[in-house]
Amino acid sequence: MRFFTALVAGLLFGAGLLVSGMTDPANVLGFLDIFGEWRPQLAYVMGAAVLTAAPTFWAMRRRRQSLLGTPIDFPDRRRVDKPLLAGATMFGVGWGLSGICPGPGIVLLASGHGMAYLFMAAVIAGIWMVKLAGNKEDSR
Amino acid sequence: MISLTSPQVVRAVCGGMLIGAGAATLLLLNGRIAGVSGILGNVVREALGEQAWRVAFLVGLLVPALILGVGSAHLPQHWAWAIASGLLVGAGTQIGGGCTSGHGVCGLANLSTRSLVATLTFMTCAVITVLIVRHVGVP
Question: pLDDT band at A14, cuts 50/70/90?
């Protein structure tokens, strides 16, 4: 059951990335290029996603278990620390280089394009370098 | 500037609502945060039983594109660009504990200060990177 519900969640998420146009790096880079021909779509995507998800997040804060009885895995870290800032900086630079973040990166594998596979292989290599270095944050 | 009723904006809002619904579904039913970098980072680490939902989520992400096609996708032109970008995205999201979905969508929906700071940081750094690449020019 948990497998099935996670699959449905992934399907919604993946369909949303496609419909929104965020799987085309040109739209993402167009948003980040505030000094060029700016494309505002990403702001609408993120705004709509946050507003849609927020009521469920707030409701779930008062509960101990999900509807399927699994524990709710809210992150316990609240502090803004150095790894957060350093990691977000690295991610921002990497994201700005290609216009691809992990979600669209996975969706783009369906294009069959070698560059998409190379990108995701590098993402996994980057994750493993950090894990091997022992600087493991419980990444969400 | 595009008008509010343009097809791109309508698609952006509808797509955003689907993404939000996906994140809400995973939390409501599985009690999990829909952060793609975290799911990806943990998929090989844990016991097989725990792993199943992560694999299912990642497969779900991919299936709509397999059925409908990806459509227009401007991928990096040079392999070195794809590798540099991917390494920074992988390592950065692992060190910073999240990406656009975990911090950007779920964290902001959860009113997390930590995620707000992360989102502002990666957005700012990405804007500066694009500014340098597109307008200043790289050597």
Answer: very high
Question: Which domain, by its residues, includes B66?
Answer: 7-136
Phi, psi of A121 (to 5 degrees): -60, -40
Measured distance CA(B61)–CA(B66) in Å, rounded: 10
User: Does ipTM top 0.90?
Assistant: yes
- Contacts of residue B59, defined as CB under 8 A and 6 or more positions apart, other chains included, come to A7, A10
User: What is the number of domains present in chain B?
Assistant: 1
pLDDT in tens, A64-109: 899 999 999 888 777 899 999 999 999 999 999 999 999 999 999 9
Does B60 fall in a domain? yes
User: In angstroms, rounded to a whole number, what is the distance separating the alpha carbons of residues A13 and A101?
Assistant: 14
**Distance of CA A102 to CAs A2, A126, B37, Å?**
23, 12, 6
B68: in domain: yes
A chain contacts of residue B15, beta-carbon cutoff 8 Å: 15-22, 45, 48
Amino acid A140: pLDDT = 47
Name, in order, each residue with C-beta under 8 angstroms of B36's C-beta and a sequence gap of 6 or more: A101, A102, A103, A106, B58, B61, B99, B100, B101, B102
Decide if A21 and B15 are in contact by the 8 Å CB cutoff.
yes
Residues 35-64 of chain A with CB under 8 A from chain B are 35-36, 38-42, 44-57, 60-61
**B1 contacts in A (CB within 8 Å)?**
38, 40
CB distance A50–B20 less than 8 Å?
Answer: yes
B2 part of a folded domain: no
Number of Cβ within 10 Å of residue A85's Cβ equals 16
- Contact indicator for A28, A99 with CB cutoff of 8 Å: yes
Q: What would the pLDDT profile of A116-126 be if each residue is shown by its tens digit?
A: 999 999 999 99
Q: State how far the Cα of B125 lies from the Cα of B106, in Å rounded to an integer.
A: 20
